[in-house]
Design brief:
The structure holds 2 protein chains of 2 kinds. Chain A is mainly α. Chain A has helices at residues 11-35, 49-79, 85-91, 111-135, 142-170, 188-194, 196-205; strands at residues 5-7, 185-187. Chain B is an alpha+beta fold. Chain B has 2 domains: 7-217, Alpha-Beta Plaits (2-Layer Sandwich); 223-269, no CATH class. Chain B has helices at 21-29, 85-89, 115-119, 141-144, 151-155, 166-180, 219-249, 258-269; strands at residues 7-12, 56-63, 69-76, 95-97, 103-105, 126-128, 133-135, 161-165, 185-187, 197-201. Classes of the chains: A mainly alpha, B alpha+beta. Chains A and B meet through α2, α5 and α6 of A and α3, α7 and α8 of B.
């Protein structure tokens, strides 16, 4: 860390993010091993496809628990669109696709991030519900169980595609932002570009934690 | 192996006397245990196909329009579809097409996911919780690959069960239907691209218990396997390609000018 860095996430946020992310990725990888016979070899990493299935099912429980906590943590900041600001941002695609002189200001999360969050929430809940029914199909009518598989696949289509968007925009697409989920500290210049509304709000309320300065009472506590 | 003929087992329900020799022979050859069953007020036993019961004579009490009573006996079991939904959904390759075009099962590959249980239009595969594997008739693969008749066919005393190459058996079925007349019909050659077990039925299919009139690979299976499955890779591949072009053409999002950011840090830092 260095001078000029500001704290944008606390440890609770980062730990939950990675619990959700790692369980989600493990579910994608193990799921692919069962979805495509071409990828059956992934089963060898887990000592066979049967173990792969078990790892998938129990990782689903970790994912479910993480998702509940993540929704509690981020719903206010990332689950609700604020109009008209967010609509203005969407109209210019956040300046990501063509040149925009002045990108409308956003809060801690921009509408693109909100859309990603809501997709993970909606698709995640669908994956948990359909997955549980697929895990215990015997107690449900077969006509219902049958439709769980395409719904589970649909959720995967959405999550898998969105994952790569998230990966790109969270790393090389927006240099400097990945630190938000690693150390929690970001270059203030990057924050100013990415989340000017949030920065102004934090400064206004005197809550902004700046590197090397006298820390507020609870720098590493959970503020969300 | 590739010289093996495409086999069809013909079940002529009009010749069945419900002796259940086939049920016993099936258990014997496949070394399936007998388990306690429930008395359901019928001779049908067990009440349904089970992991340890791959074929079952269904007993049905039938009364025609004039009030004449008649037993209907139907030997239920795997139909060995040409387009088998179970093979299509099986994630591990446990369910497969044999050279005789029947549907075999590699039990060691089965992971107990039960996807075939939900997919089968005939409700045939049964899951055993103890071994966490799925069981169903494999048309005695161990016998037919050596050109022996399946155990059920071998045991049948009335000629209700016969097996042979596909064309011969279908011809035989239609000849029998012609002989029977009335509502008699051939069941199995017209859907899922033809099954490898076909019935000669005395009555229209809708008369029979647990017999689907127009069985198909469920739409959910087609949507899942033919559309969403490839779409998952295409979608992700499209995004990766899109990100590449975005980075090359539009470029990453960087702070406006470094000094602007730094300045604000310095001026507001001491607040």
């Amino acid at each position: 860390m260095k001078k000029g860095y500001v704290q944008v996430t606390d440890s609770y946020e980062r730990i939950l993010h990675w619990m959700l992310a790692i369980s989600c990725l493990l579910l994608c990888v193990t799921g692919l091993g069962m979805m495509f016979q071409t990828f059956n070899f992934i089963g060898y990493l887990f000592g066979g496809l049967k173990n792969l299935k078990l790892v998938h099912n129990f990782t689903g429980l970790v994912f479910a628990a993480s998702l509940v906590l993540v929704i509690r943590m981020w719903w206010k900041e990332a689950g609700v669109f604020v109009f008209p600001e967010d609509l203005d941002w969407i109209k210019v695609a956040g300046g990501y696709l063509w040149h925009v002189d002045k990108v409308p200001e956003t809060g801690k999360y921009n509408p693109g991030q909100k859309l990603f969050f809501l997709t993970v929430v909606a698709a995640g809940i669908m994956m948990i519900v359909t997955g549980l029914i697929m895990w215990f199909p015997g107690v449900f009518p077969v006509e219902l169980v049958r439709w769980m598989y395409p719904l589970h696949a649909l959720g995967f289509v959405a999550i898998f595609a969105f994952f790569f968007i998230h990966l790109y925009l969270g790393t090389i697409g927006n240099p400097g932002t990945v630190q938000a989920m690693i150390t929690g500290w970001m270059d203030k210049a990057v924050v100013k570009k990415q989340h000017p509304g949030w920065l102004r709000e934090m400064e206004h309320e005197g809550k902004l934690i700046v590197w090397g300065e006298e820390k507020k009472d609870d720098a590493h506590g959970h503020h969300a | 192996m590739n010289k093996q003929p495409e086999l069809v087992k013909l079940i002529d329900t009009t010749l069945c006397t419900a002796c259940r020799g086939c049920q016993v022979a099936c258990k014997q050859w496949n070394e399936l245990p007998g388990l306690k069953t429930k008395q359901m007020g019928t001779y049908q036993n067990p009440p349904d196909l089970q992991w340890n019961t791959w074929t079952l004579i269904r007993f049905q009490e039938y009364e025609d329009k004039d009030g004449n009573f008649q037993w209907i006996f139907r030997k239920d079991g795997c139909m060995h579809c040409t387009d088998a939904a179970c093979v299509k959904v099986c994630p591990s390759g446990a369910l497969y097409y044999t050279p005789m075009k029947t549907v075999g099962i590699h039990r060691d590959k089965c992971i107990g996911c039960k996807e075939c249980v939900a997919a089968c239009p005939f409700h045939i595969p049964k899951h055993d919780a103890k071994t966490d594997k799925v069981y169903k008739c494999d048309l005695c693969y161990s016998r037919i690959k050596e050109s022996h008749a399946p155990a059920c066919v071998k045991s049948c005393p009335t000629g209700a069960l016969t097996i042979g190459d596909k064309d011969t058996m279908i011809k035989k079925a239609y000849a029998r239907v012609k002989e029977l007349g009335g509502d008699a019909n051939v069941y199995g050659d017209k859907f899922v691209n033809g099954t490898h077990v076909i019935y000669v039925l005395q009555f229209k299919p809708e008369v029979y218990d647990e017999l689907p009139v127009n069985p198909t690979v469920p739409a959910s299976v087609t949507l899942w396997k033919d559309l969403l499955k490839p779409l998952s890779l295409l979608g992700a591949g499209g995004v990766i390609g899109g990100a590449f072009f975005h980075y090359m053409i539009h470029g990453p999002k960087v702070p406006d000018e470094q000094n602007g950011g730094q300045d604000s840090v310095n001026t507001e830092g001491g607040k």
